[in-house]
Specification:
single chain, about 160 residues, Alpha-Beta Plaits, four-stranded antiparallel β-sheet
Length: about 160
């Protein structure tokens, strides 16, 4: 899909606050509501917008520990990789799972209540997966930037 400047502006607005109304976007973009609404529906239909979510403050809801885990698997067949992803996706603590290049196969992001909850996750879930190779955990001490917004300036 070829995006024009209005499509890009709509995507930027939705990234910064997906709860904003079509009316407020139309006013900001100096257009009427109908074309904005139709463009949003087209962006959704084309898959450029996959869903709308609320960004929660993890610490305020009691999830005070973020951990990144780099994982190497013992095997790399397609079925092996698919099984690993299926099982990891069932763990609610895992909020992101990325297949990566380099020294590891996967990078996981976990958000848990505290370090004890992380230890419980390791003991009762992760280490029970029979095909794990090397596992390295990286405890987050502080976060200086965390966003879902992507820079769309390259689309111009």
């Amino acid at each position: 899909m070829k995006l024009d400047t209005t499509d890009i502006a709509i995507l930027k607005l939705l990234q910064s606050n997906s709860n904003r109304t079509v009316k407020s976007m139309a006013a900001q973009l100096e257009l009427s509501t109908t074309p904005i609404f139709e463009r949003i529906k087209k962006l959704e239909k084309e898959g450029l917008i996959s869903n709308y979510t609320a960004r929660l403050d993890h610490k305020k809801i009691g999830l005070k520990q973020t951990v990144f885990i780099a994982i190497s698997l013992q095997g790399h067949t397609r079925s092996f990789l698919e099984k690993f992803v299926r099982e990891i996706n069932d763990f609610p603590e895992v909020v992101e799972c990325h297949r990566v290049s380099g020294g590891f196969d996967y990078l996981l992001k976990l958000v848990v209540k505290d370090i004890e909850a992380y230890e419980t996750f390791i003991i009762t879930k992760l280490t029970l997966l029979p095909y794990l190779g090397n596992v390295q955990s990286h405890i987050v001490l502080s976060t200086s930037k965390e966003t879902n917004e992507v820079d769309l300036s390259f689309l111009k």
